[in-house]
Amino acid sequence: MKNTNELIDISENEIRNKDIVDEKLSDAMITKTVSFDPDEADVAGAFTEDAISLIDAEESQDDGE
C-alpha cells in the first residue's frame, strides 16, 4: 500500500487507468470475458512476482541430514 506522500504523486492518468481497470475487473465478475491492455494488466496486478527466490527455495529444502 502506498503511503500518503506517494498517493499525492499519482497522476490523473494513473487514476483514470485505475478506474478503467476497476471497471473491467468488475465486468469480468459478470461476463468472464474482458480484454486488458498490458498497462491495465499491470495495474490489475497480473504481473506481480510473488514467488519465493531461488535462494529461499534452496534453503527451505529438507535434505534429510
Explain what you see.
By secondary structure, the chain is mostly helical. It is built from four helices and no strands. It is elongated and about 50 Å long. It starts with a helix and ends in a 5-residue tail after the last helix.
Provide the descriptors you would attach to this structure in a database record:
elongated, 4 helices, mainly alpha, single chain, 65 residues
SSE layout:
Blueprint: H1 4-8, H2 12-31, H3 38-43, H4 54-60
CA-based shape: elongated
Structural class: mainly alpha
Helical proportion, percent range: 55-70%
Question: Which blocks of ≥5 consecutive residues have pLDDT under 50?
Answer: none
Total strands: the figure is: 0
Instruction: Give helix and strand order, one letter per element, not per position.
Output: HHHH
**Which value, in Å, is the CA radius of gyration?**
18 Å
Q: Please report the number of helical segments.
A: 4
Global mean pLDDT: 75
Strand content: under 5%
The main β sheet shows up as:
none
Describe, in short, the structure shown.
This protein is mainly α and 65 residues long.
